[in-house]
Amino acid sequence: MTALAIEDAERLLRHTAPQEALEAGILTPMAGTRPVRLFSLEEAESFLTVYDSSAVDSAGQWAKVNYVDLNHLAAWIGTTLGDHELAGAVSAIAASREAYGFLVPDVKSLIATRIGQAKAALSAVEAPAG
């Protein structure tokens, strides 16, 4: 992905207003879906959970699944946070139509990389000249 301008990095890392929050959910077998609101890209990245065999209990049931519709995530990144390049990349991953659990690692990694780029852009400005 291309480097971010300072203004873009600030917008990407900001905390959104409540009406701009990303809607997600925690799915549990017995309780159903508990709605969750995510207010920043860092919260969204943290919310995306890569599950492995340790997430399955002895009865073979998932204890919980953190779920966000990846197309909704892409739209939120593009519209609310203004990063159309990242939104397009997330959309491209979602377009593969693979099972959600197989897509999450790639989306999480992509978002983490973009957060790192944004933080690097901001730290370059904040670093004292020397």
List the helices and strands and how they pair.
Elements: H1 6-13, E1 22-28, E2 32-38, H2 41-47, E3 65-67, H3 70-79, H4 84-94, H5 100-126
Antiparallel strand pairs: 1-2, 1-3
Structural commentary:
With 130 residues, this protein is an alpha+beta fold. The chain has one domain (6-123). The chain has helices spanning 6-13, 41-47, 70-79, 84-94, 100-126; strands spanning 22-28, 32-38, 65-67. Strands 2-1-3 form a three-stranded antiparallel sheet. β1 (22-28) and β2 form a beta hairpin. α1 packs across α5 and α4 (84-94) packs antiparallel against α5. It is globular. The two termini are 29 Å apart.
What would you call the structural class? alpha+beta
Strand segment count: 3
Order of helices and strands: HEEHEHHH
What proportion of the residues is helical, as a percent range? Answer: 40-55%
Query: Sheet bearing the most strands, described?
Result: 3 strands, antiparallel
Shape descriptor reads: globular
Mean pLDDT: 89
What attributes does this structure have?
130 residues, alpha+beta, 3-stranded antiparallel sheet, 3 strands
Quick recap:
With 130 residues, the protein is of the alpha+beta class.
